[in-house]
Each structure stands twice: as structure tokens, then as C-alpha cells.
Amino acid sequence: MNGWIGTTLRVDLGSGTIKREATNMTVAHEYIGARGMGVKIISDEVDPKADALGPDNKLVFAPGPFTGTFAPSGGRYNVITKSPLNGTIAASNSGGVFGPELKFAGYDALIVEGQSATPVYLWIKNDKVEIRDASAVWGMTVADTTEALRADTDHEAKVACIGPPGENLSLISAIMNEMHRAAGRTGVGAVMGSKKLKAIAVVGTGAVRVAEPAAFKAAVMDSCEKIAANPVGGAGLKAYGTNVLVNILNQTGGLPTRNFQEAVFEDADMIGGETLAANQLVRPKGCFSCIISCGRVTKVTNPLYAGIGEGPEYESAWGFGADSGINNLDAILKANFLCNDYGLDTISMGATIACAMELYELGYLTQEDTDGLELVWGNAHAMVELVRKTCVGEGFGKRLAEGSYRLADSVGHPELSMTVKKQEMPAYDPRAIQGIGLNYATSNRGGCHVRGYTIAHEVLGQGPPTDPGAVEGKAGLDVAFQDLTAALDSSGACVFVTFGIGAAELANMLSTLTGFPYSPEEFVKAGARVWNLERLWNLSNGFTTADDTLPKRLLTEPIPSGPAKGQVSRLAEMLPEYYSVRGWDENGVPTPAKLAELSL
Amino acid sequence: MRIKYFATFRELTRENSYQLDDHLPDVASLLEVLSDRYGTAFRDAVFDQGAMSPVMILLVNGRNVRLTGGLATPLAAQDEVSVFPMVAGG
Amino acid sequence: MSKMLMIYPNKCTGCRNCELACSFEKEESFRPGASRIRTLTWEREGFSVPLMCQQCDDAACVTVCPTAAMHYGPEGSNLVELTADLCIGCKLCVIACPFGSVRYDSVTKSISKCDTCAGAPKCVEMCPNGALEFVDDAAQTRAREQAVADKFKTIFEDVR
Fold this sequence. Notes:
The structure holds 3 protein chains of 3 kinds. In chain B, 28% of the residues lie in helices and 27% in strands. Chain B is an alpha+beta fold. By secondary structure, chain C is an alpha+beta fold. In chain C, the strands form 4 sheets. Chain C has a two-stranded antiparallel sheet with strand order 1-9. A two-stranded antiparallel ribbon of chain C has the order 3-4.
């Protein structure tokens, strides 16, 4: 078999049974792999009403057909499950090396079922799979867990694990791999913690095969050339990382500041990619088979916040920075290092602190609630301390670990949580950039930018000139981005390859790799299939068109200053057209005709 | 008029920003004046055979000039201009 | 004029495209165990080093080989070559190599070591970061000298 392996591993932590099954190849062809395959498995096997932290939820780790090959930046895997944060079907995407190692070990997917009574870890070496006692590493940080388990398994083992927040079922906890890469969003770490699964250690010595070697290599070299020639994919991301976006968004007037109260940050330049490159950057870093190297190896020498690690990404620098009015980049890095080493979603963590700061400003939280910390805007020391408390589960940190929606709701003001479907929105203000707002509102896992990154057109100059302030054409733009991204997420490729290539190149690489023919249209259609299946599952869990919305602030409070002053999100003008382009009825429900077209 | 530089444009100009007191009518004339000031490397980064470089993002008061006429975009005395290379996503 | 494979660990991002290129070239599939080049990574600090056969002039593997399967290439080739037909799989070369760059592949049951892909090394072709270079020995250190000289130039240019 080519591209795919043909074997799926299923482990039941309750009964201790381990089964190697044949991968359903019809599913593989229709859903490609990774996100798509995981969504199909969860859709078939998990009741939408199941308790996300209960024994009936499942946790799927799935690489894609590209994963483990030299398809450029094609080494990703997904973690798919029912989210305990918001009940959506969540697929969280990560890079590093763990996904490729799963392929070399001989698996298209690992399905973890049930719950263990005591802490365990999985040790997978090719077809040898063991459930082992993890009591010695339960409670350890991510880096310490990784090194301890390597000592007990194999020095070269790739380890995906949770830290104490995941163990304590924090709704914003992440699953980390290779110490610094995260399957970050939607609380997937808590699902792993609820199963008492501390870690998975993998070694693989097998091969990923190719159907048409010469044609595949030619397709890969062509794609590599196009990505290298693109200013973003080629030189830009490697030189500055994603954090260079801070100044771009600020100058556009769409950098959410102080919990989305404003959209320009007076100290943006102090926390942007240029400053990072000058002060804390050690070198760029790339995931397995990556040709872009957007990763940042960074170091802080200031003894207050000293550390070495990776990041911050734009989102993380924003969450701990502009969103909280903080201009201290060393503090931001420290917060990011802590989140990586304990396993927390940096977007949700930062945005939750920002929400806490606004609640404190308005008097809904007091120093008694905050363990004496003054949560005033810009208080970098307090921000880092709050992150630390959340990491170790201490005091006020326990409330922050539930995310901003539950925090704000607990004091009677859920409207001050800048979330969609209870997940914190990322670093683009929908009032300044209409298309991304539509994406936030319609993303199947809640507030998320990567599901449909229209920013590439609306702000970054890719594609035809696109006015961020206009609503015309945004429905079509969002659908196109969402479908292509869903297909791409299912192939194992990194979304950053879209700075250079598109459906044509991806379909060509996929066809020559697997020997199964995909036209560009069929590739995108597979993405639409995944998107609609996610939508159906969410609808079965009680989500409705009423949930496809944005916080009231963004719909009614105009941006007070900057280039986008006076604007609000005009979601209501875009949503009906979005449903129509999607082939859904006016309530956002896929029509029978649409489902038939996608073989759903 | 205030011109702000970001990412690689900071290396090219060795400045973070520049205050221009002359009033220039449009983006084309502004880029000419700046190219004279900073030299060939800057000129090559902003122009591509007489047209605007396709790998530069230029904002006037936060609006991308590709939406307002490109090189022909008019400028007023109090405008703020931001110059970026096309660099990133995320 | 012969060529050498130069490595620049400071440019390595740990992407392992070199291993994939090597495996693909030798077996038309992706199996890191088949690769003659290996990248070692320090995860905490984010540092990676690619390593492969150094084609030694006085090679330990050639010295210990009982069948001369491991031998020097033609005069001026800068290569240590393996004639697979003569190899008995005794693995003395694996033990002898001080760099750990000769390996026994238990999947193919053969000795594997870098042969520079007949002068067109695929690892160099695939590396996206310029961490590997196949360069004439006259120019072997040019990149390093240039990098240092550039720094001196910048320092002295700023001093009037």
C-alpha cells in the first residue's frame, strides 16, 4: 500500500485490549486521513451526547498520507475527539515528528477508547504495543516526562504527552509532542487526562511507500520550488516567524487589544517579530520534512523570566501581549515556555487572562479572587504569575483553567468572554476584517482562525486585492478557504504550504504518492465532505444557527480608534449568503441534496 | 507625512520610520523620493519594472494601496504610510 | 579536483529532509533506517546536527574489513566505497567507524554507508536550509570564511 499504511491501532484502556485492524480504505479515499479520517471515526463511533470526559469519548491520533514522506512540510498529524471545552467535534493539529513516527511504526491512526483506572502510558514499537504504568511520571512536566519515558523505552522515542493541566482536566489543556509542538486547542489535553493516559511513546522502523516514485518526486520538487519562490513561504516565515504579523495587524487597525476593547496597540512594536529577531531569537526551527522553518528557537537571559524553548507564535505573543495590554516580550516568552512545558493552549490561556483583566477592571473580580494579584492592563508580572498558577493548578489558576467563558459566566458576565462557541477567538479583529469574523462564527470547533485563514487575502496581499472592510464576496472566500484547508488538514500537510501551492499541486502529489487518483476538484470536495460531517455532528449535539455568531461587542461596539475606527462586524450580512454557498438551508442545516452530492 | 518601515524594510533603510515634510501627490512620487534617499536595494524592493513590487504591502492610513489605485493612490499631508514586505501568516 | 560533503549545523533546522531524500534515492520509499545520513537533535535547546560518512583518507572501516569489500575509491575520488558482493556482513566496519556512520540495516540485512550518490548527493539537493553542501575541496571552507569575513566587514564599516 502506498501513502497510507493499511493498519489502524485500537487500544481500550478500560479492558486493556489492543487490536490492530485493517484501515477502512473507502474511508481513507473519501476522507484522505488525519483530520478527515478522525472526524469520520468519531462521527461513526462516538455519540454526540457522550460525556467528553467520560469513558465513551474516544481520542484519535491520525497522521495523513503525506506524513512521513518528503511532501514539503507534510509531516503533520491531528488529534480528533469530542471537545470538553465546548462539545464540538474537535480536530487539533500538530507538527513535530510524532505523526511521521506513527506512520513508520505502521499505523494510519491510533484510536484510544475507554479509561484507565490508574495512570498509564502507551509504548508502541512497530507492531509491539504495551500499556504501561505511568505513576512515576504522572505530575511531571512535558520535558521531564519525555526524557523519563525515553529512558524507559528508547532513546529515540517520539513522545506525545500531557502535563499537570491535562491531568487535572483543564478545558484549555493541550497535548504536546517533541516538547514544544502542540495539539493545542479545544481542550484535547483534558480528554487524554480523563483517560488517565499520560503519554504515548513511539518508535517506528518501517517505511511509507510510493506508488509512482518518479512522478511523486517531480511533483514534490515542483511544489518545493513554488513554496520557496513565495515571499512568505520562502524567506519571510523563516526570517521572522509568524510574530511579524503583530505590526502588520496593528497598522491595518485590526490587532485586538485589551480583550477586544480596541484594535490598535500603542506598544505593538515592542512585542513583534522584528523585536523578537533582534533580542531573543536563537535560530529557526522546522518540523519533520518542513521546508519553511517558521519555528523559533528562543532564549531569555533576563533572570526574572529566564528560559530557553520555542516560540512565541503570533497568536501567543498577542494573547499574552496586546490582548492583555502587555509590552514586555521577555515576560511573554516566559508565559509561552510555561504553557509548552505544562501543556496549555496559549491562545485560550492568554485570552482568558485578558478577560480576567477586564472583569477585574470592572470590579467583577477582586484581589480576593485573584490571590492578591492586581490584574491591571499591562501587568506583565501578574500575567506570568497567573500562567504559572494555571500550570500547577493553584488558587485562582484553577478558575482560569476552565477558560474565559466559564470564568466570565461565573461572575454573571459571559458577554465579556471573547469567544465563539466557548472557544477564545484568535488575534484578528472581526470588526476590521470582515471575512475572518465570518470564519470565527462558522468554524466547526469554535473561535478559530486556521480553519479558514482568509487573512492571507484580506490582509497579507496573497490572491487578488481584497478589501478587509468589505462584506461582498466574503461568503464565497470563506467557503473556499474552509474546504481547501479541511482537505489539506486531512492530507498531513501544513497549512503554510498554501503560501506557494494550492489544490492542483496537493492533488497531484497525493495521487502520485497513493496511486489513488484525486483531481483538484475531488481533493477540495473531500474537504467539503469533512466540513459537512463536522457540521452534522455538531448539529446532532444541539448546536444551531444561533451559535454561529460573535460576541455582542464585535457586533455592536465600533472600534474606537485607528484605521478601522467606527467599524463593527457585519456578520448578519454575510451569514445567509454563507449558508447558501454551502448548500445549507436558512438554519444552516445541510440539505439532502448537498449530503447526496458529498455521499454523506 | 510619516513613513513607517517593518521587517526587512528596516534593514534596507536602517530606520524604523521617517518624517517627510514635503507634500507629495501620490504613492508613485513618494516611492521615487524614498528610493533616491535609500538607494538601489530599496528601489528594487518597491518597484518591479516600473510597476509596484508584487511582494510589498503598502498601507496608507491602514488601507492597502492595491485597493485604492496602487501607485496612483493620492496622498495628503497628514497621512501615515506603512511599508512591509510580504512576510507571514499564522 | 574532488568534492567533499560539508555540513553547517548552525543552519540545520532538524527537518530531516536529507534522511528522506537518501532513503527515497536508495529504496524509492521513506524509511529513515535506510538513510545513510542521520540528523541528531537536542530537543530542549532546538539544535540539530546532520552526520554522514566522512570518507576518511585512512579509514578504520577499510583497515578492518576482512574481504576488502570496504575499499578506497579511484585515485582522487575522495571516497571510501563498499562492494556489496564481497561483504560478508561481519559488521567489523560498524564497530570500527569512530563516527558511527557505517551501519548495519537489519531490514535489508546489509551494510549501509554514504556513497555521495555517484557525485550528485540527494541530501544536498533536498536540504531547504543550506546546511549541506557538496563542494570542490578548493572551496571547502569558503562559506565559513565568508561568514566570518562578512562580520568583520560590518564591524569595520560602521567604524569611521
